[in-house]
Amino acid sequence: MSDDIIVFEKVNKWYGDAFHVLRDIDLRVRAGERIVICGPSGSGKSTLIRCINRLEEHQEGRLVVDGVELADDVKAIEQVRKRVGMVFQQFNLFPHLTVLENLTLAPMWVTKLPKAEADARAMQQLARVRIAEQAHKYPLQLSGGQQQRVAIARALCLTPKIMLFDEPTSALDPEMIKEVLDVIVELAGQGITMLCVTHEMGFAKAVADRVIFMDEGQIVEENTPHEFFNHPRSERSKDFLSKILGH
Q1: 8 Å CB contact between 198 and 38
Q2: Which of 69, 153, 171, 233 has the most CB atoms at less than 10 Å from its CB?
Q3: Nearest-angstrom CA–CA distance, 38 and 77
């Protein structure tokens, strides 16, 4: 299948000898698809998406990202990382750099973009996440929601084909969650392949093409949001949804 941009085939990962964190993961993601990954704490969701840009290393199986197989080849890993943007729970911004400097650092270092071009691209992405007027402030002068939008803009500065979001709203106050989700919803309409680990089920209903439910390192269920929320197939999914949605 040539339009699969991410392919997991029987991927396994352990932490040490004891903890089997990913078990026989089979997953195909089409280019432009938007996937929300949910499940209880410790089910392997974050580890799964962190394997896609090799922040975590899998020990068994095959993982192919945009036609490049991720193994021990450093060049292949570098190639993939240039195409995959990532947004974490904690914003991971450099506090001693301005917002603009945070955004231009990687394009100038990684892709050797001249400063003027890097600045122009950064301003474009800051406008995209509706925060251009904050370019010359430092991260700690911004609210959590603004910092997370800066982190999203920073990931977009490398013009990724794939965006990974690892619980992007879990460190935010409730009133800031919506502003970050609104930005992600907007991006979702622009054709970037997206995988988002989140507990925000309203967001999953609004944005996802597919919801993947994980538990104990396995993909237990995958379906359209409508089917997943209205007719979950497994007992584990039903249990999870009753806890998170309160019914």
Answers
A1: yes
A2: 153
A3: 26
Predicted TM-score (pTM) above 0.90: yes
**218, 23 in Cβ contact below 8 A?**
yes
The 10 Å CB-count burial string (b at 16+, else e) for 107-130 is: bbeeeebeeeebbebbbebbebbe
Partnered with residue 69 across adjacent β-strands are 64
Rounded CA separation 157/125 (Å): 7
Which residue's entry shows tokens 């301003």? 123
Radius of gyration of the chain (CA): 18
pLDDT digit string, tens, across residues 59-75: 999 999 999 999 888 99
Angle between helix 115-128 and 144-156 (nearest 10) = 130
